[in-house]
Amino acid sequence: MALPQLATTKYELTLPSTGEKVEFRPFLVKEEKVLMIAQGTGGQKDMLKAIETIIDACTFQKLDAKKLPMFDIEYVFLQLRAKSVGAQVEVSVLCPDDKKTRVPVKLNLEEIKCIREVGHDNNIKLTDTIGIIMDYPRVDTVNLLGEDDATSAFEIMKNCVKQIYDAENVHDKADMDDKELSEFLESMSHDQFVKVQQFFDTMPKVKHTIKVKNPETGVTSDVVLEGLNSFF
After folding, report:
1. Could you tell me which of 209, 194, 198 has the C-alpha nearest to residue 120?
2. Cβ atoms of 86 and 107 closer than 8 Å
C-alpha cells in the first residue's frame, strides 16, 4: 500500500525583471538538505548552484535560474525562504559610525524589495552613433569573480554585453569574436567606461534600509543591506 502524499501550499510572487506572476511552493526537506550540503562546503559557487536547483524545483520548473538576472535570483530565494522557514530573521549589523560595534537587528524578509533606480537604462550611448545594449549579470557572470578586482570587473562587463551597434549595423554577442570584443571595450575612453559602469551601479538590487542605534555611542545611522549574505 502506497504511503499518503503530503500536500504543499502554493504562493505567488512577482518577478522583478519582467513583472511576471510566478507560482511557487516552500522548499521541502530534500531542498533543505541541498542547502545544508552547500553551506558545509563554504563555497560561493556551491551555494549558487544549490539556490539554482531550489528555485527550479520550487517554481515547478517555470523559472530557469540559469537565465535569471542575479537580482531575480536573490528576490525569489528570499520569498522562498520566508514561506519555507519563516519570514523573521535576525542579522548582525555593523554600526557605521565607529565601524566596530555590531548590533542584532530583526528583519521581515517579506518586506525586502527589489529596488529599481530612476534613469537606469541598458542602452548606453558611447558616441552619437555607437552604443552598447547590456544584459544583467547572471550566475555564470558572478562566477567570473576572482581575486583581481580589475580583471573581474572587465570580464563581467564583457560577459554582459548583448549587442553593439552603430548607425548602420547591430552586432549580436553570439556573432562577436572574443578578442575583437575585448579590443572594443579596451578602446573606450574613461568617460565611456564610466557610462557602462553606471549601468551596473544603478541596475535593480535587492536591498533594504534600516535604522541602527549604536549602544556604545548613542548614534543612530541608516544602514543599507544589499545582497543575499546581508539578510542571513
Report:
1. 198
2. no
What is residue 117's three-state secondary structure?
Answer: coil
Nearest to 164 by CA among 142, 143, 181: 181
pLDDT tens column, 35-58: 888 877 767 788 888 999 999 999
How far, in Å, CA of 66 to CA of 62, rounded?
12
What's the grid cell of residue 177? 569574436
Beta-bridge partners for 206: 114
Nearest to 231 by CA among 117, 115, 88, 103: 88
What distance in Å separates the CA atoms of residue 197 and residue 184, rounded to the nearest whole number? Answer: 15
Q: Indicate the pTM of the whole model.
A: 0.89
- What 3-state class would DSSP assign to 161? strand
- Cell digits for 25? 511552493
Q: Which amino acid does the sequence have at 223?
A: V
